[in-house]
């Protein structure tokens, strides 16, 4: 398929997914499920990853992608407000939490005795949501 064809037919090609990111993520997961159905597979889906909470030190971030730029500039006082809907919850998770979660899931998956495909969500919104207020 040419780039032009994909651009012109994007909505039809992604079949109801909200965007190409969620579509390609779903494609990858379906491919893994199909090709690795006889093994132990764990997929970890973090929400927006931000700077660390504690380790190696509070606020550490290797890059400014995703939420890193916003949390850095807010943390050092450059960014003081963002116009947004006060009813929206922000779903972020510190980088060190994601790293620890990956370790925990790896250990858990290694002791499982049966084949499985498990998808884990590393996020804050259910138990500890951040509000825009």
SSE map:
Elements: H1 3-8, H2 10-13, H3 20-35, E1 40-46, E2 48-50, H4 68-75, E3 89-90, E4 92-94, H5 95-111, E5 116-122, E6 130-131
Parallel strand pairs: 1-5, 2-4
Antiparallel strand pairs: 3-6
Short précis:
With 133 residues, this protein is of the alpha/beta class. 38% of the residues lie in helices and 18% in strands.
Overview of the structural elements:
With 133 residues, the chain is an alpha/beta fold. The chain folds into two domains: 35 residues; 94 residues, no CATH class. It is 38% helix and 18% strand. It has a two-stranded parallel sheet with strand order 1-5. Strands 2-4 form a two-stranded parallel ribbon. It has a two-stranded antiparallel sheet with strand order 3-6. The longest helix is centred in the C-terminal third of the chain and has 17 residues. The chain is globular, with a radius of gyration of 18 Å.
Strand portion: 15-25%
Task: State the helix count.
Answer: 5
Structural class: alpha/beta
Span of the ends, CA to CA? 46 Å
Low-confidence stretches: none
Give me the strand/helix succession: HHHEEHEEHEE
Give the averaged pLDDT, no decimals: 84
Radius of gyration (Å): 18 Å
Task: Assign an overall shape.
Answer: globular
Helical residues, percent: 25-40%
Largest beta sheet: strand ordering: 1-5
Number of domains: 2
Q: How does the major sheet shape up?
A: 2 strands, parallel
Note the quaternary state here. single chain
